[in-house]
Amino acid sequence: MSLLDGAGRDAVAAAVKRAEAGTDGEIVTVLAERSDAYHDVALHYPVAAVLAVTAIAAIHPPLLMVGDTGWGDWQLEQGLFALLVAQTVTFLVVRFALAWMPLRLKLTPRATKARRVRRQAVRAFRLGADRRTKAHEAVLLYLSLDEHLAEIVTDSAIHRRVPNEAWGEAMAALVDEVRAGRPAAGLIAAVDRIGTVLAEHVPRTEMDVNELPDRLIEL
Questions:
Q1: Is 75 domain-assigned?
Q2: pLDDT digit string (tens) for 54-79?
Q3: Contact, 45 vs 98, CB < 8 A?
Q4: How far apart are CA 53 and CA 92, in angstroms?
Q5: Are 136 and 157 in contact, with CB atoms under 8 Å apart?
Q6: Do 83 and 190 share a structural domain?
């Protein structure tokens, strides 16, 4: 299933073509539904819940004392069985709840999501842009929809010439539109600003050729 409709994809491709008209740099746009399944998160919370149940049982034992002589065998067996049942039920309930991806993403720390998005952006750059241009002047714009996070990854020549701060406006414009439910508009706005930065630092020369596709890549 496509993440954008045909009009949206065409508009992003047109924005890339327009932005590249003033620069020797190449812009690659990548759109992903999400950057990770976060299976580890879906396990961490159930395990933490089980440990919490165990801690509560240790603080407030659900077992019955027999006189002053300590635990009776029957009470101990019943108590351990009840604890095991509580642990199992807790694990399954939390695990099945986290099968719902919106909840799993909600409970995933933002720093974790940022690392996963960055990792996937770098991977996409290596596959689709790294060393694909003669002058190493490619810029990849990566947007992960479910995380509402984006990354800009640049080739070596761009990295040397353009400070990281220069991409701030592009990132802000993109994320604002995505949060408003307009990913295509966000990509277009970001591409326009990336083109402005590239035109300043890597202006177009007579040697410029279109080395990478303008179309939006959807993952």
A1: yes
A2: 887 777 665 444 444 455 555 667 77
A3: yes
A4: 13
A5: yes
A6: no
